Amino acid sequence: MVWNIWIGVVTLMLTHVATAAASVFRDPETGLTFASEFTNYRINQGITYRIAQPSDAVRGSPFDIIVQIVAPIDVGWTGLAFGGTMRECPLLLVWRNSAGNGVVVSSRWARGHVTPESYNGISFTLYKTGTKVNGTHFQATLKCTGCSYWTNNSGGTRFLLPGVDNRIAMAYSPTRPSNANSNTSSIAVHDVHAYWSHQLGQGVNANFGQVMQTLS
Ligand code: HEM
Ligand SMILES: *[C@@H]1O[C@H](CO)[C@@H](O)[C@H](O)[C@H]1NC(C)=O
Ligand SMILES: *[C@@H]1O[C@H](CO)[C@@H](O)[C@H](O)[C@H]1NC(C)=O
Ligand SMILES: *[C@@H]1O[C@H](CO)[C@@H](O)[C@H](O)[C@H]1NC(C)=O
Description:
With about 220 residues, the protein is mainly beta. It has helices at about 1-15, 210-215, and strands at about 20-25, 35-40, 45-55, 65-70, 75-80, 90-95, 105-110, 115-120, 125, 130-135, 135-145, 150, 155-160, 165-175, 190-200, 205. It is globular.
């Protein structure tokens, strides 16, 4: 009886774990304005996913985005799925390196709900500006080319719509990749996944190109 109630409570907690909150984040370090989403991956602990886009992005065409992820250091790996589902879209993963003092970025693609493969359809630049690790968090700031536009396994093109809400998904695992210095390391399956409507309109930057030149 007591045990049943306990299971009920745990289930309730897990189904409610993925609460999200959107906000505008003006980043003093990069000078960019990000559309920011804070998502709980467990009780009282959340990961922040931020996306900045150029103001001249054209609907239906590829555009670069800058992604910033801030995660507590108990996160083994976390990732974004730009198609709002695990399947057939760019998956962008981040985790801490073996020494625990830097961040590794990895690009993957899943043909289904199975271990994703390495994916060369995007390229990314991890910036020193806005990338750091301290005693409680790691933070990555990177440019992604290809995260806004891709071709799926049936040859269909999919893309992010600039300036409006887009369904995005995240996944989280407490387990660090076994070969943490390598971005092709095998990864453990996630414990938690979540979706939200990312308000890209809140992260539109007129000076996107200029700012990118200042980031190293
Ligand atoms: C070893 C690697 C992985 C395995 C084995 C795996 C496996 C699975 C499985 C079996 C499901 C279905 C679970 C259910 O319906 O309850 C699922 C769902 C999901 N996974 Fe993964 N996954 C992996 C990596 C990833 C990564 C890297 C991401 C994103 C960065 C991701 C994002 C998602 C999302 C968003 C869902 C919800 C269903 C959907 O939207 O398609 N997964 N995964
Ligand atoms: C790993 O990083 C290298 C160098 O940044 C990059 O060229 C390659 O595409 C990445 N591979 C994956 C699977 O992310
Ligand atoms: C650690 O880094 C995170 C993410 O950048 C930041 O929010 C937090 O304030 C930092 N903590 C300290 C003590 O500097
Ligand atoms: C592939 O893209 C096409 C065209 O956008 C779409 O209709 C189809 O649902 C996509 N398939 C998957 C698995 O996303």
